Amino acid sequence: MEERWYIWPSVIFKLADRNFSDWLFNQNAATDRFEYGFKFDQFNVRGLNERLSAMAQFGFKRRFNFAYNIPYLNKAQTFGMGLGFSYSEFDQVDYSNVENKRLFIDADSIFGDDSERQIISNSMNSFLFFNYRESYYNTHSLNLVYSRTTIIDEVLQFNSEYLGQNQDVEQDYIGLSYRFRRDFRDRNNYPLKGFLIDARFTKIGLGIFKDIDQGNFRGLLAYYKPLKYNFNIASSFTAYTSYPKFQPYNNFEGLGFSNNLLKGYELYVIQGQHYVMHKTELKKELFSIEANLGRLMPLKQFRKVPFAAYFKVFFDHGYVQNNISDRSRISVSPLLSNRYIYSYGAGLDLVTFYDAVLRLEYSINALNETGFFINVKSGI
């Protein structure tokens, strides 16, 4: 056993798009859609397991973040809190969803190719949260956030409902959310045993700024079970519901981001006020090894390199309900909402340091589209 580092300076270099396939096919592998910068994490600040994080990011999205987390405020180590601030600038934004694919507008299209970098949207968020750890497995969280988003007038020419129905160019709100989490998994990023219950209620707009009045509930139940002969089965069920019927484009959610995604639909963003999703995987461990780099690696914390591979077959399915009017620019001619959608296929998961995961998957979806997709993080 080697003690982890407490100070983690790191370099940021990543795609701005939702996944590799989205960048490659929907954005034609555009070279201006990269994000780069620096990140600093200080763990165990003051020897009390506190965490300080700071980030400066440039490129497609310019972003600056600061956060401080104090996990224990009392001797019983049941109460904790944290706070943070972020500021982002954009010279390109997506303004509409046509046939479940996002359309983008950039500053060059508005001001001309010869103009200097122009900001067409920016956002600022600050938050304060409190945690109560009821037991080793159960955690309650309360999060208070202030958000401010602005756009230039020209964006309204493409979508007048980007921030609301009144051709708003500014949106302010205070939001409040409560989250309950019961986590019996053996590890976070690539669990093989246990279960997870995660439920969250969110209210956006508490009546102070009156720019938005929106609420939602999101629930997740995931189960992981080892079988004989190094087989493993994993299954998860996700449900989401929100109100009101009309929601500004900037706040309209759905399937397609991060791990909130059905396999085989990496090229699509399926927006809706309500959705359900069920994912199942049967996987077989091919091998699990630990290489020792010895003197080739001067830092002893990184000399032992774990590496595992899992072959899997999967079936995902779900339903997204979209009640936005056909006359709205928010969601135009959707192909995949208000219908049963599914996908199936096979893939290979590669797992290494700190449960970092690379997923290589071949899938077939409800449109009879086939594809090979590359993703990170566990699929369930």
Automatic annotation (TrEMBL):
Keywords: Membrane. Gene3D superfamilies: membrane protein fhac: a member of the omp85/tpsb transporter family. Pfam families: Omp85 (PF01103). Residues 44-352 form the Bacterial surface antigen (D15) domain. One of its GO terms (cellular component) is outer membrane. It is found in: Membrane. This is BamA/TamA family outer membrane protein. It comes from Marivirga arenosa.
